[in-house]
Design a protein that fits this description.
CATH topology: Rossmann fold
CATH architecture: 3-Layer(aba) Sandwich
Distance between the termini: 71 Å
Structural class: alpha/beta
CATH class: Alpha Beta
Number of helices: 16
Largest sheet: 4 strands, parallel
Helix content: 40-55%
CATH superfamily: P-loop containing nucleotide triphosphate hydrolases
Radius of gyration: 22 Å
Number of strands: 6
Length: 361
Amino acid sequence: MHRHTAGSRASTNFLHHPARSLRRLISLLSTFGAVAGVQLQTSRSIKPREREITSESLAGAQPEGVSAHKENRRPPASSDKAAWLFQWWRPSLRWTRRNFSSRASELSGGDAIIVSVPKSGRTWLRAFVCAYFCKRFGLEFTLRPERYRDPRVPRLIFSHDLFEHRTKGGLWDRLRGKYLVPRTELRRAKIVLLVRDPRDCFVSLYLQITRRDPNAPVDLKQKGVSDLLRDERFGVRAIVNAMNDWLNEFSRRDNFTLIRYEAVRASPAEHFRDLLALLAESTPDITIFEEALKFAGFENMQKLEAAGAFDSKILRPGDVRDPESFKVRRGKVGGYREYLSCEDQKYAADALAELDVRFGY
């Protein structure tokens, strides 16, 4: 006599009860949340005790109290089914990180981890730190000082983390958590969250995609600034969401520091000095410090980029004849107004209202 096992009944139900099967599929997918780099929880179970960012932060922003940010819960109109699924899960997600890819080793072993949305000023920060330590220990300048394997030079990990996880690669990359900094590394190393006004970030990212990056998808390169501003994965709300998620994840950690791009632009010597102190260089050599500051200045960096003086593709223009295709472009605070229409500025302002007030924007 043939026995109907639980597995066979489930198979039959899958064929004859599609609505019930969809619920079962969702339930089964939730059991694989850790594989995707996430853990599913109900919003009721997520009630972390908030703590304001203190004056130890390099941000220069005064905490304005604690406020829960609004989630963008509208389903994305993306043709990428995998991206749609992950964004559909997002309102009930609390990240528990897993990186099962070979890239996990590249994101491990750092003394500090610099996390940011693209175009937040990390190349400027990186150029200064590398210039200082290379000069300090008699090494030829490089943006990749780890190649010297000199233990005196702090190892920095630069990552776009969640933002890259949501925008780059395919379903398999997201399932492996390829772009996520491993959770154990975030516990061990110092975390620096480098942030910039999302509107300025977006405009720079738009120019990066459309004028600089030859590998950007054709459909993105053909989008106008208004359309990309509203894009579910690359638009201003995607930037706001990533910043909020990082702050919620990191702000209660003792090893966390927030740096605001605008504060560094206003007083680079003060904030770069604080950054060196964070890297255990509490009494920097003044002469070398000033030289590194001058080296990392925007005008000098633009000249070096135009001349192809860097050993990394990080600092190479898309087209030397097009100033908008340079990595070191303008760095202007509030420059988004020159690229966004009044209607687009209003849309961006509405998105900014969803940003955690602790960022100070």
